[in-house]
Amino acid sequence: MYDRYIVIDLETTGHSVEKGDRIIQIGAVVCSNDEIIKTFSTFVQPGVEIPPFIEELTGITENDIQDAPPFRTVIPTILELLEDGCLVAHNADFDRNFLKKQIELEGYIFPQVPVIDTVELARIFLPQQNSYKLSELAEELGYSHDRPHQADSDASVTAALFQKIIKRCKELPILTLQQLIPLLRKLKSDFEPILLECIDQRKFTKRNETEYDCFRQLAIKKVEKQPTSNNDTFKTYEDYMVSDFTELMKTALSQFERREGQELMMQEVHEAFNQNEYKLIEAGTGTGKSLAYLLPALFYAKQHNQPVIVSTQTIPLQEQLFQRDLPILKRLVPFPIRIALLKGRSHYLCLRKFEHSLSVEHSNYEINLTKCMILVWLTETTTGDIEEIMIPTGAKSLWYEVQSDASSDIGKANPWFSRCFYHRARRLAQDAQIVVTNHALLCTDLMHEQRILPQHTHVILDEAHHLEEVASNHLGQRTDYVAFAHIFQRLSTEQEHHWVEHLEAIFKRNELPFRSTERLLTLLTSMKEDVDELFRILFSYIQKKNHLSATDVGRNRYRYFSFKEAGTQWQALLECTMRVHMVAKEIAVAFKQLLQPLEQNDHDHIQYSDQSFITELEKWFEVLLEEEDTLYQLLLEYDPTVVYWAEIEPRGAKNATYLYSKPIDVSVALADLFFAKKKSVILTSATLAVNGSFSYQIKRLGLEDFAPETCVIPSPFDYNQQARLLIPTDIPSIKEVTMDQFSYEIAKKLWQLSEKTKGKTLVLFTSYEMLRIVYDHIQKWNNDHLLHIIGQGVTSGSRAKLMKMFKQSDHAMLFGTSSFWEGIDLPGDELTTVVIVRLPFSPPDDPLIQAQFDQVKEEGGNPFMDISLPQAIIRFKQGFGRLIRSTTDRGSVFVFDRRITTTRYGKQFILSLPNVPVYEDEFNQLLHSHNSYL
């Protein structure tokens, strides 16, 4: 270990010394032998003005630095602190480089010191944290951090974090520490001496490591069998509700309030299950529907000794049910409960593949960082579910290599089989009373010959308004050039120790004849060239089409009919597709012939690592052939019940093309494959009905022949007092102006809103193009950067990352399209204003919508009334539901689409909402009223 650690944090006027930015505050904490021996803090006179957004971020003003010393006078103290020490910082690259450049600017030499980055180390040694921002780490770890973004406070918290990391390092098993050393050498932090010291200490202390299962040079958390409880006093559901429910709820929930809607829903679920009914239940926000269906489901599962499947649309809700509601349920029911969480196989780590990955060297920083994270995570996780950790974006390729899939199963030769995370999850599901899964896995199970889920007859579908979309996605197909390119890269022979060389060595070790691979490699090259040409032709063909529609992510989209398309380019495309198909058949034959000597011999004598490699190789050829089969079906086959379309990246590479197909109607498939095979299904959501009617969902989901019952449970929130619907009368109709003019007017109104209300606003768009235009306008006006503008598809980052940025801001606007209309929970001051820019009708040029319109017309229906309007109303209710999330919330929803009051159908949007006051007036009047209301 090092003798002294100097934990440093800087506050600066910006990011670049070269562009004139300077330090305005320095904080330092000196540690030795796990103790703080010295602290240092000072404001610094930068000689330049502090930008307004830095003032707002740090709280440091011109008054604070007025009498502060200039940086040159502080340098001797800094250099003295750093002497013979190790520099530690949170995001050390920035602090070290900024400090070095400003010191050298004053003519001093910055010392050569080891550097440790606590961001990097926190990711490795605390892999299950939700965020690695210093303020959020401090909150999660319970550190006092009263002045975030002030150097002295940040340095103190960083020092505490560093000490926690050292402590965690000392607790890890020796196997893990030893595996970390070669990987840490490829990272930024000079951490190896500390790791070696920890290993030496562990050797001398001989600490008991019985909590770990140490196997094949990996240490994983040992899973203890849960003791069975003798508390098995079973009561009927009816007796329990009469005698126990209320008192147990008071015990389980500290702020329990009896909710009539929740108890009504419990009764509805109980009756449906026991009478083998299908039932649609719309439960308004705040009902507490999770407990309302889980409790009667548990009693049913217990009494009938069979599992109940609970399926949700999103992984976060699936985990919320498991992590938040399960502990409550354990305190509520008078018998031991068994609830299992089951996700798709690709969510789980394959230990066999990860073990192999450790023997493969990578130069990629994020891949090596992720290997370190997984090594530590293995000492903590009992599930192996990747959702528990945040893998860096640049390491997604590693996860594709180490995730569980069909190739993970190599039979008896796999020494990891008994420890397999995926099979453990399946075993737990087989023994569970409630299995929590998601719609995607549920749909996969419908088509799977070998069932993934345990045998069941009773199902609860939460977020059921998404079932049609998920089923459509699952029953459809897609491919793109990148998918092929990834496979060809894996089957390439250009890199050192490629698959042919490896396979030949295996044959030689086992004294088997090895055929020439020249023919197979020629075929692979030919297929790669043809695939590249195919996607280039397709890109060019679509690019020349008129009236292309735009997707949410800025792609151009074209619906095609393979038997109707004409022209030399399309003909060349079909010929190229057929060439790819014929070559793929030859590849399948050539690869099978290559492996034939293996098939003719007993596999048992082939060593485990070789079998593992062969299985992996077979998987990649299988994936290639499956991808080609998808391509063939998308371009050379036609099904009138399916819609086909292509998307291109207009500014992307000339082969950046994506092909899709989806069934136009999933109702028959759902009826035959799912509902007909169940005894009782509960479909619930906060948005199922359209103006009190469930007929749209019943028809679209194929429930018409099952005589489903329906029920609407209103929200317990007092919308009449808590919310307002505000409709400005001075916003132009988009039909009377151009897109640019309308967007400019919307931008002006939003800018006024931001100036008058200093809180947070969610702005919901239906068009990515309009979102981008409005974003650009407001960004130009936001000179002082006091408003944090976050735009989906404009601001970099995932949906979760954008949400974090929004939550962390005091004054912000979040611009979102489709995925932001729901699944956002921002109670209290986190959200006081929602703006719905346009009524959320699906774009009529969306290929699936077009095809559904055509189908409805053929059946003599009205596409607008039968599809467009119900869909839009359900989406509108979801957007409105983002505002009020608790009984104390207050706020307003602005609707910038005049059609809600000027058209006959517009009233149906308002009638589908809870009893909320509606106000129409000029925008400035409504804005004044909104501010007074808050």
TrEMBL record:
SUPFAM superfamilies: P-loop containing nucleoside triphosphate hydrolases, Ribonuclease H-like. Keywords: ATP-binding, DNA-binding, Exonuclease, Helicase, Hydrolase, Iron, Iron-sulfur, Isomerase, Metal-binding, Nuclease, Nucleotide-binding. Residues 248-524 form the Helicase ATP-binding domain. CDD domains: DEDDh. ATP binds at residues 283-290. It is an enzyme of class 3 (hydrolase). A motif (DEAH box) lies at residues 462-465. GO terms for molecular function: 3'-5' exonuclease activity; ATP binding; DNA binding; DNA helicase activity; DNA-directed DNA polymerase activity; hydrolase activity, acting on acid anhydrides, in phosphorus-containing anhydrides; iron-sulfur cluster binding; metal ion binding. GO terms for biological process: DNA replication. Its EC number is 3.1.-.-. Residues 738-924 form the Helicase C-terminal domain. 3'-5' exonuclease. Belongs to the helicase family. DinG subfamily. Type 2 sub-subfamily. This is 3'-5' exonuclease DinG. It comes from Halalkalibacter hemicellulosilyticusJCM 9152.
